[in-house]
UniProtKB/TrEMBL annotation:
Domain Multidrug resistance protein MdtA-like barrel-sandwich hybrid positions: 83-229
Keywords attached to this entry: Coiled coil, Membrane, Transmembrane, Transmembrane helix
Gene Ontology molecular-function annotations: efflux transmembrane transporter activity
Organism superkingdom: Bacteria
Annotated transmembrane regions: 26-47
InterPro entries attached to this UniProt entry: Beta-barrel_RND_2, MdtA-like_BSH, RND_pump_MFP, YknX-like_C
Segments forming a coiled coil: 131-189
Organism: Agrilutibacter terrestris
Name of this chain's protein: Efflux RND transporter periplasmic adaptor subunit
Length: 412
């Protein structure tokens, strides 16, 4: 066979019908894919169907409905009393009777306790006797002076008639003048004795301990039979006070503000105070004064705050949190004009340079970037990102991601 015939054998016959495809491999591939899909669905149902993250949520509320101003600074401090006194006796003595109890209200001048007055009574009796003696001496001198003046007057006439010697007349004049001086001395001694009696009477009055002002007794420090003294006993058994009273109308708040932020605080600035014991009670207050000295150890400045509410629940040494509110009317108006929402502080997270929250939406966590405003109590103002009526996630694992399935934990 020559070369031309060989080439003809290699030529493709395009008129012949194409061969039938092999369908067996296709059906095998489809069967394997279906089995893999079924296994995947079964695995998800068994292992992933209940893999929702348990979270806690809270409602977003409106800041405008509360009518509050934005906080420019928060601080903590304590309730203090401007008028508080540990009342003691002015003298050292033994307690005879204590007339107060803790929690009792006393008025100004009310007797709180009495001391044993035996020594003071003896001193008063002695002073009274001394005064009586000086008054008796005055009466005796006055009688002698009256006689001496009469004698001097009689001798004066006789001396002019030269019926008595001039020496006798001079003696009579000298006796009269001596008695006059003696009378003045006795009168002054009587004044001194009178002053001594008044001092002794004051000593008796000092055995009675009275309240210096109206208030509430918060401590009872002495019992009958104990020795009290206005001076420190140096660790002995002598008490230095009868009890402690507090003027509840003088209660105020003292807070320490960091030096870096003291410029934000001004006198008469509105303040909102929240007692640790009553976290839902917001007390209106106002800055009284900024104490013009700093604590170098803590780098803070003390600020006095007046409470505008008087209530029996407020007692000294209670812990309190205060929020210094906006004072500038323009800033307050601008903040009021912007739509504001309140979210709990626990819902806020920091993601890089953004503040974010997770919003509960159809069983999933939706990440939202937010723009924050000031503090109002335990909540933060949100100027953009969420709106009132939505629900934010307050407690969730730190690994929570956008779009994750979540389940709200039931309240226990």
């Amino acid at each position: 066979m020559n070369n031309s015939e060989l080439l003809k054998e290699l030529r493709i016959d395009r008129s012949a019908p194409p061969p039938a495809p092999a369908r067996t491999g296709l059906w095998i591939g489809l069967g394997v894919g279906g089995a893999v899909l079924a296994l995947a669905l079964l695995g998800w149902a068994v292992f992933g169907g209940d893999d929702a993250i348990e979270v806690k949520t809270a409602d977003v509320t409106s800041a405008d409905s509360g009518g509050g101003s934005a906080s420019v600074l928060d601080a903590t401090g304590y309730v203090v009393a401007r008028r508080m006194a540990t009342v003691s006796a002015k003298i050292t003595g033994k307690v005879r009777e204590v007339l107060i109890e803790e929690g009792q209200r006393v008025e100004a001048g009310q007797v709180m306790a009495t001391l044993d007055p035996i020594d003071a009574d003896a001193q008063r009796e002695l002073a009274a006797s001394q005064l009586a003696a000086t008054r008796s001496e005055i009466a005796a001198v006055q009688a002698q002076l009256k006689e001496a003046e009469a004698n001097a007057s009689r001798l004066s006439g006789l001396a002019q008639q030269q019926l008595v010697s001039k020496a006798q007349f001079d003696v009579a004049i000298a006796q009269r003048d001596a008695l006059r001086a003696r009378l003045q001395t006795a009168q002054r001694n009587a004044q001194v004795a009178g002053s001594g009696l008044r001092i002794a009477a004051q000593g008796v009055d000092n055995t009675i301990v009275r309240a210096p002002f109206a208030g509430i007794v918060i401590a009872k420090a002495a019992q009958p039979g104990e020795i009290v003294s206005p001076l420190s006993a140096g660790g002995g058994f002598t008490r230095t006070g009868i009890g402690t009273i507090v003027d509840m109308d003088s209660l105020e708040v003292e807070v320490d503000v960091a030096e870096a932020y003291i410029g934000r605080v001004q006198p008469k600035m509105p303040v909102e105070a929240v007692l640790n014991a009553y976290p839902d009670w917001r007390i209106p207050a106002e800055v009284i004064a900024i104490i013009p000295t700093a604590d170098r150890a803590k780098a803070t400045v003390k600020v006095r705050i007046a409470l505008k509410a008087k209530d029996a629940r407020i007692v000294p040494d209670m812990g309190v949190r205060v929020s210094f509110l906006e004072q500038d009317q323009k800033a307050a108006a601008a903040a009021t004009a912007a739509p504001r929402a309140l979210v709990p502080a626990g819902a806020l997270r920091r993601d890089g340079d953004q503040d974010v929250v997770f919003v509960l939406r159809e069983g999933k966590a939706e990440r939202r970037a937010v723009k924050l405003g000031g503090n109002i109590g335990d909540s933060r103002q949100v100027l953009a990102g969420v709106s009132a009526g939505e629900r934010v996630i307050t407690e969730a694992p730190a690994s929570l991601q956008d779009g994750a399935d979540v389940e709200v934990a039931e309240a226990k």
